[in-house]
Design brief:
Oligomer: single chain
Bound molecules: thymidine-5'-diphosphate
CATH architecture: Sandwich
Number of strands: 10
Order of helices and strands: EEEEEEEEEEH
Shape: globular
Number of helices: 1
Strand order of the largest sheet: 1-7-4-9-2
Number of domains: 1
Mean pLDDT: 97
CATH superfamily: Jelly Rolls
Largest sheet: 5 strands, antiparallel
Helix content: under 10%
Structural class: mainly beta
CATH topology: Jelly Rolls
Distance between the termini: 17 Å
Strand content: 35-45%
Radius of gyration: 15 Å
Length: about 130
Amino acid sequence: MSLIEWVELPNLGDHRGALVVAEANKNVPFDIKRVYYILDSKPDVPRGFHAHQELEQLAFCIKGSCKMIMDNGLEKQEVIISEPNKGLIIPPLVWHEMHEFSEDCVMLVFASDYYDENDYIRNYEEFRNFREAL
Ligand code: TYD
């Protein structure tokens, strides 16, 4: 199965501008319990470098772009996130890294659960071991 799964949200925009709608359990494939956004990033300062044990996320660049590296321990793929209505699913147990943020980038993330540091795997070797033990 591909590591890259996109969710396309409807853009109800008209001559006034864009209007993009996200609805939990409809076009977003989980309950949205948390939303966070990342901005004022630096092109040469990557973020992420972790996997989650259970959390599901959907990440958009509603402005600008960044490169996302997705790694399930067996294969690694990279994609550019750059469309305000096209989000990348970040499933559990996928190591992910965000690189090359454009200076204007605003990343919006929907998450299936509240913040829980215990759900994070922040060490790559630990991530590999965790996957191998599955
Ligand atoms: P971190 O996970 O390091 O961000 P990224 O994965 O984008 O590099 O998060 C930075 C800090 O913010 C870290 O101390 C955890 C905290 N944090 C929260 O408290 N709540 C949240 O919803 C998120 C995403 C992070």
